[in-house]
Write a structure and sequence with these properties.
The chain is mainly alpha-helical. The protein is built from 18 helices and six strands.
């Protein structure tokens, strides 16, 4: 059930919590925002290109048609649910494989083409072997035999924990859907939003983000602790709201035309931090720079990781303010990431690696 702020109540929206907690956070000395670089960027950034960058937020063009709204929402939601594992990209690069996001997308497309559905049954039956096969993730690798020279044995490789996390996530959420008599993630989302419409509530990104965080906290309640206070990010939930809004606001405005969509914040992750660093907006100290260059992973919830994410949200919020609010935070987020990709691999900095998080 979606909880809404009643007239006269003071319960802040998830977006407000993200914005205010990141602004109030005392950042670790490893990262700082270069205010001069920020102002220079704001003066020179092509705002029309920033606005146009939101086209990419709708997702890729898929090679098939969906049977109905719930089927397409299920596919989008499944990809969003499994949007984690960036900490394993350094291993995938060494093994000359696609990054984790591309592997998951490829696997979900393959599953849908072969099964024609993406429901709770598919999620509950997802095994580690099947995930590794359809996503083409080398979870097992050959290693020298410990006793016989010249022979090899198969063992779990460095990305095996990622495959385990994918399978466990699908199984857990599939069971959650079953227990609540939802056929799929799309069924859960559409029915929830339809109930809100019947109750006279207009579509709300804030309410949707809150629903995801409260319903599936292990995967969407993206909240950490820093300096004895809570710091909020809600990355995946906000991305889901943006994607569904942009994809369905015209065809299904009663469900997905979120009037508060401009209030969403940037999606705080290591890629956004790298995108800001290449613009000179974020500066790392020597210790963090060395750690990132060496591929050493940051711990989820550490002061370093929280500071990078909070600094990224703050920097984007300042860009919005410096450009007169002509582009929202999500548009700047997508534009910065596109700029990073256009610089790769020649001189783009490596995104910080964070191992074990289910939030990115």
């Amino acid at each position: 059930v979606i909880e809404r702020t009643m007239p006269g109540a003071t319960c802040p929206s998830p977006q407000h919590l993200v914005r205010e907690s990141c602004a109030a956070a005392k950042l670790h000395e490893c990262v700082q925002v270069d205010e001069d670089a920020l102002r220079d960027f704001a003066r020179n950034v092509p705002l029309e290109r920033v606005r146009m960058s939101l086209r990419g937020a709708r997702g890729v063009q898929l090679p098939f048609r969906f049977d109905d709204l719930k089927a397409e929402v299920s596919f989008i939601a499944m990809f969003n649910l499994l949007d984690f594992g960036s900490g394993y990209d350094r291993y995938m690069e060494v093994m000359k494989q696609s990054d984790t996001k591309e592997c998951v997308q490829r696997g979900l497309i393959g599953l849908y083409l072969s099964l024609g559905k993406m429901d709770a049954d598919v999620m509950n039956n997802a095994t580690e072997f099947k995930i590794a096969e359809v996503c083409r993730i080398p979870a097992r690798v050959d290693a020298p035999h410990p006793q016989i020279p010249g022979l090899t044995v198969e063992k779990e490789g460095p990305v095996a924990p990622f495959v385990k996390s994918l399978s466990k996530t699908l199984n857990n959420v599939g069971l959650w859907l079953w227990e609540r008599q939802y056929n799929s993630l799309g069924d859960f989302i559409v029915r929830t939003l339809e109930d809100e419409t019947k109750n006279g509530n207009p579509p709300s990104a804030a309410a949707f983000v809150k629903t995801l965080a409260e319903s599936l906290p292990d995967y969407y309640n993206d909240v950490s602790t820093m300096n004895e206070g809570e710091i909020y990010f809600y990355r995946k939930a906000q991305i889901m709201a943006t994607t569904l809004h942009l994809r369905f606001k015209e065809d299904h405005p009663g469900l997905f035309d979120f009037k508060d969509i401009d209030e969403l914040t940037a999606a705080a992750d290591s890629m956004l931090a790298a995108s800001l660093q290449i613009q000179g907006i974020l500066e790392y100290d020597e210790t963090l720079t060395t750690k990132i260059a060496a591929g050493h992973a940051l711990l989820p919830g550490s002061a370093e990781e929280n500071s990078l994410r909070a600094a990224s949200v703050n920097a984007v919020e300042k860009l919005v303010a410096l450009t007169g609010g002509n582009c929202n935070a999500v548009a700047f987020d997508h534009f910065l990431r596109q700029e990073w990709r256009s610089a790769k691999p020649r001189n783009a900095p490596r995104p910080p690696s964070v191992a074990g998080t289910l939030f990115y």
